[in-house]
Amino acid sequence: MMQTMTKLRPLLLLPLMALAACNGAAQTGGGPAVESPSQRTETAALPRVQSGPLTPEGLKGLSAAQVEDALGTPGFRRRDPPAEIWQYRVKSCTLDLFLYVETAGRMVAHYAVRSPVGSPVSDRACLDEVLNAKTERPVS
């Protein structure tokens, strides 16, 4: 079963990426569940993100709790089974994370970076801006 899901995952990502490209447009009834940013994920029994620079490729395989530790609470969260999409928007780009349930819980399987105006933005520059935005947010 897991091998089948692993093989189907790339096919499932295409429509999810198209949905994420909508930039979280308002939904009407009957759509997938959307959570508010104030809803926290469960605490995983996995180790937290280790110190050192986080790379875009390093996002893959992180648990939901590790992502929140590293990047903060996403501005937008959408459940679209079997995936959950987390979105981090900053001034120059949007970082979309696609999480799937694995044996250890929800894990990042894929990420996508895009610019709001279609101009080029590097994965590294976008992640750096998301990380900087987290450190600039006031903690209450």
TrEMBL record:
Q: Which domain of life is it from?
A: Bacteria
Keyword Signal listed: yes
Signal peptide span per the entry?
A: 1-20
Keywords attached to this entry:
Signal
| Residue numbers spanned by region Disordered | 27-60
Designated name of the protein: Lipoprotein SmpA/OmlA domain-containing protein
